[in-house]
Amino acid sequence: MPVNPDLLKERAASTFNSEELTFIWDGSQENTLKRRRIEKLVFSDPDLLGPDNRQVSRDVAYGESIRKHMTMWKRLRQHGITDDFERFCFLRAVFGAEPSGLLMHDVAFFPMLSLQASDEQLNKWLPLIKSFQMIGCYAQTELAHGSFVRGLETTAVYDEKSKEFVLNTPTLSATKWWVGSMGKSANYAILMAQLYTKGTCHGIHAFLLRLRDGNHKVLPGMTVGDIGPKFGFNPIDNGYLRLDNCRIPRENMLMRHAKVLPDGTYVKPLNEKIMYGGMLGIRAGLPLQASIGLASAVTIAIRYSLVRRQSELKPNAPEPQILDFKTQQHKLFPLLAQSFAFNFAGQRLRQIFAEVMADVKNGSFTRLIEAHGLSSGLKALTTTRASSGVEVCRLSCGGHGYSLASNLPTIFADLVSGATAEGEATVLFLQTARYLIKNCISAQSNKRIDAYMSYLRPDSTIRSAKFDGNHDPRSLLRAFEFRAASLAVKAASRLQALVGRLSQEDAWNESTVLLVKAAVAHTEYVIMRAFVEKVENEICGRDVRKALETLCVVFGTYNIIENSADLLQDGYLAGVDVDDLNDHLLGLYDAIRTNAVAYVDAFDIDDRILNSCLGRYDGNVYQSLYDWALKSKLNESQVHDSFHKYMKPLQSISKL
Q: Are 287 and 386 in contact (CB under 8 A)?
């Protein structure tokens, strides 16, 4: 079909090359070329196609998901694709916004096994994984325990006589729950359980547990099943597991770091935090995924807002594009900027995680706490705000946004799971807060503090700063830094004051509202800093740098206005400054409006991945919606069976 004339006009008027911005979004031109090559492979392979999950039952969607995932694994091997980025691109090209039935094998089971199993264990188990004999899941969450990992009830008690671990879920609340791929798919699990040797509990450790035999039957002593339909992620068989005196060999405890010797002697890891390295790796990837989900929704909403014409701005004038309304711009343009901000923060977090893991392999654990603090806050903030941002995009599309044809409900339902999975947001913010307080105490004692905490140093002048009236990225970053420093010091001061009259635990609980606020402020500072550094250091053309800087200033200005109460209270801003910032933000919307379609085109999301009637590259929204309606199962017959069963009999009675 021909491209919508409004979109043609918009693309012709753009002031920068969107492909150059695509290279920045992907991390490099090389990454973009890799991704496009992978997508071409996938889209040309008929075995990787399947029915639209929005139009089929959960049972069919699950079965198709397994088929496509297994086909994907075969294709990855056939094409020799081992690079993590290329594998992710392949997965996304196959499944789009939909999850896949074996996702947790790729993102949790295998990474956790690689990090926690010894070399001897990996030599034994990796061949089973490569031959598809071992398909796994990650069994941590329980029916009554989630983010509080130390509270898990599942036990692994070492039997010195048999040299085995005896596994139990001793109560109903200990039942493993929400375990992705466990319900029907996986035949192995990494089980997180309380380790007991010689009558002593050593805390949570990881064990490899076989769930099913060669015919995929559940092994004796186990009760395994699917937990049922969910808000989203329904092609994934999230499962439950109950254990009744199940035994596994001693060698099935993952022993790269901690060990249990044959006589039951427990050998501690060099650093206890490394036991959570697998979870850290999962969290480190979630901000990038959140940015991609939000970018998809923003692409749909902005393209639709350029095609949709409604109401009037001037009497007797043609209906305007709804993106010409300032209220629509105010909904969508900050989310556009936020997509890029989360992406750049996610790229930086992945770099930090790689650096920290390299240090760990060399025996250095000094940056583990830094990585944990950063990943906790970034995961919590990006997933929650991306989810709420998708809902804003859906609402901005009016009635059509409510249709599954828009794909916005699917994107929202799948993305919102990230706000809870791998750590609930408030719990994670409080973990970041502990990291903040630790650095506050170190700063008070003139000890070393982490790089992102430089605003806490005694010689820092940020807490006495005032807004200088400039709107460049660095000036805006100072406002983020001021707020982060102010709230961190306030939270630490309140906590220290309460410790004088309350127990440490009660003092912490009484301070948690302010502690969460400080953690959010610090995380916002980290994100803005990543954005500013990207603008300053990225090698690109002048027009693209200007386009990127405009987004950075929108992100910074919008968030400063949203948090202006704190900045006014502490004297960083005056009332006139807030008025100035509001005026400047609205003025920036004009520059973004000119390039709105170029910005979302830079995300370079193929229509087959976006899967949206409203967000099509060619803008043929209404024909696409009509074609979608024709595919409805209800339209397969002119008269539905229910008419003859229920309606017609009642109509006949009414005639008597």
A: no
**Phi–psi pair at 201, nearest 5 degrees:** -90, 130
Calculate mean pLDDT across residues 271-275.
70
Contacts of 320 (CB under 8 A, 6+ apart): 309, 310, 311, 312, 313
Tell me 108's DSSP state: I
pTM > 0.90: yes
CA distance 428 to 407: 29
**CA distance readout (Å), 218 to 108, 248, 252, 501:** 21, 15, 18, 55
Question: Rounded distance, CA 21 to CA 458, Å?
Answer: 40
Residue 177, CA distances (Å) to 63, 145, 414 in order: 21, 9, 18
Q: How far is 512 from 435, CA to CA, in rounded Å?
A: 13
pLDDT in tens, 394-427: 999 999 999 999 999 999 998 998 888 888 899 9
- Tokens 């039952």: give the residue: 57
**What pLDDT sits at residue 277?**
65
Nearest C-alpha neighbor of 18 from the set 547, 537, 473, 530: 547
Contacts (Cβ under 8 Å, ≥6 apart) of 383: 286, 287, 290, 415, 418, 419, 425
pLDDT band at 59 (very low <50, low <70, confident <90, very high): very high
Q: Give the pLDDT confidence of 1-38 residue by residue, as tens digits.
A: 899 999 999 999 999 999 999 999 999 999 999 999 99
Instruction: Determine the distance from the C-alpha atom of residue 626 to the mean position of all C-alpha atoms in its chain, rounded to a whole number.
Output: 33
How many angstroms separate the CA atoms of 484 and 487, rounded? 5
How many other C-beta atoms can be found within 10 angstroms of the C-beta atom of residue 599?
26
Catalytic residues: 422
Distance separating alpha carbons of residues 394 and 379, to the nearest angstrom: 23
375 is written with which tokens?
């990943």
Question: How open is the CA angle 529-534-538, to the nearest 5 degrees?
Answer: 160
Structure tokens at 291: 């940015």
What are the backbone angles phi and psi of residue 197, rounded to the nearest 5°?
-135, 140
Long-range contacts of 55-64 (CB under 8 A, 24+ apart): 55/631, 55/632, 55/633, 58/229, 58/234, 58/235, 61/234, 61/235, 62/101, 62/184, 62/234, 62/235, 62/236, 62/237, 64/235
Cβ neighbours of 445 (radius 10 Å):
10
Nearest to 256 by CA among 361, 163, 358, 356: 361
On whether the CB atoms of residues 473 and 531 are closer than 8 A, the answer is yes
Cβ-based burial of 162 (10 A; exposed 0-12, middle 13-18, buried ≥19): exposed
Summarised one tens digit per residue, pLDDT across range 515-551 is 999 999 999 999 999 999 999 999 999 999 999 999 9
**Rounded to the nearest 10 degrees, how much is the dihedral formed by the CA atoms of 154, 159, 165, 171?**
-20
